Amino acid sequence: MKKYWSFFRMRFLGSLQYRAAAWAGIATQFAWGFMKLLMYRAFYEAGPAAFPMEFSQLATYIWLQQAFLMLFNTWRYDNDIFESITTGGVAYELSRPVPVYSMWFVKCIASRVASTALRCLPVLVVAFLLPAPYRLNPPESTGMFLVFLLSLAAASALVMALQMLVYIATFYTLSPLGVRIVVMVLSDFLMGQLIPLQFFPEAFRKVVELTPFAAMQNLPLQIYCGTVAGSALTQALALQGFWLIALVGCGVLWMRRSLRRVVVQGG
Question: Would you list the domain boundaries of the chain?
């Protein structure tokens, strides 16, 4: 564990240096947050239609989405990893006494955690101070908040496990662009980045909730908002754990298979 902590610490501290980019990101996330709130507010005031979430819950969902964007986005990758695969630099990684999958996983998750640490606190503080119904509301109970944190950690690891499959696919495609675009479009739509899954048609939503995408951003945010509880919450957490084990397991096995077949020019 000591070597993994070293990898995590080095990448985490290195990522903390980009403070100017963090402030720019904070400004962007406030802009998107207010834009979404005003857009949804217009829909809520347009007519007496029944909505699946109260506006206060939706506001909480949007601010949490903006605060933890760097944990859940699927458009951010480590270009050094892609370069090491396409140029043959991965041979240096193979010489280290650490599994390549675990090393890349820890480095990438450390970068995401560092970026989130720089951005989330200002967003959360300002969102808590906004007037109702636009503010970020506290969770229903301390217990639900602890469940939210547990699901948040699992969801971020699940996003990373999905992106690891994109890295591994580059061993076969050489260019990651196509796979990245497909994964980004699917995940943004199915994890609730564009609109919360609660707004999907019920039949379609039930299908989406069985996929790993729903267990990424959607689940922890819905737990915090209080829109999932009881037996449904237990089932969702169990499914989230299943998908995390499945995606990590598939990634590890696929990585081993890929590295056994990899050919580096010159040796």
Answer: 2-261
